[in-house]
């Protein structure tokens, strides 16, 4: 039993470690883009699919967002922390929204090579690259460099803090992205929202797994102590049985030593009486059968002649 539980725990830990390296990816556009949707996808496959989509130059502006230090859990309540992203990725777009297509991949295995998309946009669409680093102090939006199109805006957002202000930091980053979209000369854009984990997040997840393993070890010690208590209890019962075997029998008449009218014996008497009554009725029924001697005589008359 313990071996089975250890194997199950090992499989669970392997599955948990398998999802430690995954990051979410989002994309939305004001153009109709055909992209495969999947809950889990490898980074090379997703990179090639997005590159194929971008090779047709569907927009005038491309915003390549880089958000470090996050995971899919940070976007589970995106309506509060990132309202713009939640609205753009909503399946039912409102009438006033310019977004016509979106893509969400919650778990991406590996690292996305965004440089491949940059090369495709430069080669196929002839875009000019503008870098916007919002993580630095005074990192504003260069409005003069937003025209003419086509343009590729590489937007680097700061990593959110690990404390209680994490949701507020994500909301600030979402507001900065909304400002960039509002300042575009034309509302013909495609947003590629890439994310990455921080080393602190990886260490935190590993510490959590270590804590689960420690809890399991503690549970194993408790079970071991329970087994020891059970053995001690069995030893006490064995000693009691041995002491009982050494006791001398009670002297006296037979009915004082044994009990003959127990509930089980009483029920046996009732069942036996019922069976005897059934047997009596059956024997009485068979004995009451009466057969005349004429029934054994040969048939005579016209009926006997016909049968001959």
UniProtKB/TrEMBL annotation:
Keyword Heme: no
Coiled-coil regions listed in the entry: none
GO biological process, one term: fungal-type cell wall biogenesis
Keyword Ligase attached: no
GO cellular component: endoplasmic reticulum membrane
Pfam family name, one: Ac45-VOA1_TM
Keywords attached to this entry: Cell wall biogenesis/degradation, Endoplasmic reticulum, Membrane, Signal, Transmembrane, Transmembrane helix
Record-annotated V-type proton ATPase subunit S1/VOA1 transmembrane domain positions: 259-298
Main location (coarse class): endoplasmic reticulum
UniProt topology in membrane: Single-pass type I membrane protein
Taxonomic superkingdom: Eukaryota
Regions crossing the membrane: 266-296
Record's subcellular location: Endoplasmic reticulum membrane
Protein family membership: Belongs to the BIG1 family.
Name of the protein in its database record: Protein BIG1
Species lineage: Eukaryota, Fungi, Dikarya, Ascomycota, Pezizomycotina
């Amino acid at each position: 039993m313990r071996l089975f539980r250890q194997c199950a725990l090992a499989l669970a830990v392997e599955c948990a470690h398998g999802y430690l390296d995954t990051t979410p990816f989002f994309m939305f556009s004001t153009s109709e883009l055909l992209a495969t949707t999947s809950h889990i996808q490898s980074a090379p496959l997703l990179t090639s699919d997005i590159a194929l989509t971008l090779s047709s130059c569907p927009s005038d502006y491309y915003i390549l967002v880089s958000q470090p230090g996050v995971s899919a859990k940070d976007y589970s309540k995106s309506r509060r922390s990132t309202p713009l992203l939640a609205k753009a990725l909503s399946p039912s777009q409102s009438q006033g929204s310019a977004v016509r297509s979106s893509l969400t991949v919650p778990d991406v295995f590996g690292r996305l090579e965004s440089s491949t998309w940059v090369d495709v946009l430069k080669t196929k669409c002839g875009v000019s690259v503008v870098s916007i680093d919002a993580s630095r102090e005074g990192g504003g939006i260069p409005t003069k460099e937003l025209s003419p199109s086509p343009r590729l805006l590489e937007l680097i957002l700061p990593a959110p803090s690990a404390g209680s202000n994490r949701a507020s930091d994500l909301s600030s980053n979402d507001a900065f992205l909304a400002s960039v979209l509002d300042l575009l000369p034309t509302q013909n854009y495609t947003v590629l929202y890439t994310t990455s984990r921080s080393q602190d997040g990886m260490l935190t997840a590993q510490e959590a797994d270590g804590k689960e393993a420690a809890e399991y070890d503690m549970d194993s010690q408790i079970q071991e102590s329970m087994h020891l208590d059970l053995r001690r209890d069995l030893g006490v019962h064995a000693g009691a049985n041995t002491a009982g075997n050494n006791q001398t029998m009670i002297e006296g008449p037979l009915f004082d030593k044994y009990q003959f009218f127990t509930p089980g014996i009483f029920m046996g008497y009732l069942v036996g009486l019922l069976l005897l009554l059934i047997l009596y009725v059956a024997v009485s029924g068979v004995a009451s059968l009466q057969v005349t001697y004429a029934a054994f005589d040969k048939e005579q008359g016209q009926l006997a002649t016909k049968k001959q």
